[in-house]
């Protein structure tokens, strides 16, 4: 903090003046103010008294300088506190962010909050206390208050989601959010599937809407309608329940499309336990292309939305805004289907 | 920070007065307020009572305020930047931490570093800049420099690992680290397995040593020796490679024990792809008891080391040190085997 303060305007009292008045080094002033180091209580008192006397305050320049120097990026997640355990999507996102942040000495400040009001209050506090250089916003909503709020607070931010030139903060993500789902349905159609059920995420999320619309359009284009559409909260429990329910339908679907890979893997396990073979009796498609999908047998057919690369691009966008020398973020195109082993030809009617 | 310094007025009661009233040193008052040091609960109470009595508030002091107000706990992970994607253990740990931190408005500052030197330098910087209230230390090493370093920096910390009364910082974890492995081997022995291979973590980690020693002792106790012991870096790639290698041994093992669940799930997938049935032809045991193990088919037999609860206990220990009113951390006992579907009777010799 020393050096930052030395660059301050000449008319203001300086840390050097405080150090001189207290008879200590500028480092000791820093320590007294920050409550660090090993200076004695008496010295600390003396420094703080001298600072008060001279009208010197470390925060005079702190806001701007601190802004540039916290080397901390916030990731506020508006989900239940067990989200990281239940949805590896966030682990992959953090992995992508850390791949850019860690080599440059930046940390990621993770906060889990219950709702949008808490999330907004948190940004206000973190900015007021000068704790972060920027923020990554997730789970975009159709009517999202955060971009305007953060612009008002002067905090650099990126919103994860499809690029949108009109957004008050940069949006980082793949374009054509519906493209992966369209491709997945085309793949199932080619394999002969006509009875496809769709498990979606929470209805209020933007990507839930975009993907569901793409799915319904694609089916309509083929003259079909979904066997069933179910919304979910992304959890393992929901995956098991919805799979059991869908497999018990009189007009049992021959293919299930899930909103993330962990739900798809749960769905495969649930189907296998009920005696069905995947993909012989049931095809399953995930979404995200997480490592998880390559570990299991059969390997998961899924939509790659490049979560790690989106995280990396978000980090680079923010790092560039912090004055770091980073390569420009690169994201190529759109979500794409990755065909593996969990999808196969429609079973012949029994 | 402005306000904290400007708010000081000469008439205010001083920390010295509080120390005198409580019959302790000013350092002890600091410790009581900051939740640092090793003063007794009784002393802490006495100091806080004296402070209340005199109308003294630590907000006069930058130290206390800052300490009490970053509402940020550091988690520095000394692993490759893709660790969160490749080892759900950390996701579960973070889930456990967040379950306690989030409801109290605390954030988790996540830093990934390459080595111990970087990790130590980072603590020094974070403390110097007053960015954190405490730290959770992971991946304990036999000769770990961090407890002494953090005590020197005056930063509250907990070290994850088996409790140890002699440790300079509290250690939070289950006792009897080898107990789960002993139980796992006993289970395999009962099922008739005699050819067991053991995949371990990196040799330099304390828990790797403790568990491997427990495994070798258990086998020796049964008059057996391991078919093979292999160290690994915890990755998916390593799981696939080591499984292929072990299954190609002339004296093929009938059971594999892995150091975490994601490696075990990769191992099961690799075995299944090579045409082996789990558990009919091969039994597999994981370690951690992550959600993942309940999603797959067959469900994973694994050692529950209560990662989330350890995370919660670590968070509570630190929160109590920050003056938060939290229930005392509770951890019951030792790692325990959870028997599911991936282990079964030894196949009859062909």
From TrEMBL, chains A, B:
Keywords: DNA-binding, Transcription, Transcription regulation. Residues 13-67 form the HTH lacI-type domain. Pfam families: LacI, Peripla_BP_3. The keyword Transcription regulation applies. GO terms for molecular function: DNA-binding transcription factor activity; transcription cis-regulatory region binding. This is Transcriptional regulator, LacI family. Gene3D superfamilies: 3.40.50.2300, lambda repressor-like DNA-binding domains (1.10.260.40).
């Amino acid at each position: 903090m020393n050096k930052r303060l030395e660059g301050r305007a000449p008319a203001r009292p300086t840390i050097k003046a405080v150090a001189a008045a207290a008879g200590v080094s500028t480092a000791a002033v820093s320590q007294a103010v920050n409550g660090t180091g090993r200076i004695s209580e008496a010295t600390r008192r003396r420094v703080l008294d001298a600072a008060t006397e001279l009208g010197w305050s470390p925060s005079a320049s702190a806001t701007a300088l601190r802004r540039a120097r916290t080397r901390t990026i916030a990731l506020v997640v508006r989900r239940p506190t067990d989200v990281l355990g239940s949805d590896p999507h966030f682990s992959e996102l953090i992995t992508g962010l850390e791949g850019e942040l860690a080599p440059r000495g930046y940390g990621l400040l993770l906060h889990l909050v219950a709702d949008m009001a808490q999330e907004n209050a948190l940004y206000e506090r973190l900015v007021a206390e000068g704790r972060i250089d920027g923020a990554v916003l997730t789970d975009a909503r159709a009517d999202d208050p955060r971009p305007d709020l953060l612009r008002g607070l002067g905090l650099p931010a990126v919103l994860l989601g499809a690029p949108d030139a009109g957004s008050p903060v940069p949006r980082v993500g793949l374009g054509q959010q519906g493209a992966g789902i369209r491709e997945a349905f085309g793949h199932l159609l080619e394999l002969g599937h006509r009875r496809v059920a769709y498990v979606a995420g929470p209805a209020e999320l933007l990507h839930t809407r975009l993907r569901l619309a793409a799915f319904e359009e694609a089916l309509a284009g083929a003259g079909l309608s979904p066997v069933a559409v179910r919304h979910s909260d992304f959890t393992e429990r929901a995956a098991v329940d919805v799979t059991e329910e869908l497999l018990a339908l009189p007009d049992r679907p021959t293919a299930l499309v899930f909103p993330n890979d962990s739900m798809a893997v749960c769905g495969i396990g649930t189907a296998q336990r009920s005696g069905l073979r995947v993909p012989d009796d049931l095809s399953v498609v995930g979404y995200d292309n997480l490592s998880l999908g390559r570990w299991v047998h059969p390997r998961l057919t899924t939509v790659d939305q490049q979560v790690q690369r989106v995280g990396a691009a978000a980090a680079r966008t923010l790092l560039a805004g912090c004055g770091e020398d980073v390569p420009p973020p690169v994201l190529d195109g759109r979500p794409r289907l990755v065909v593996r082993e969990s999808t196969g030809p429609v079973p012949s009617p029994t």
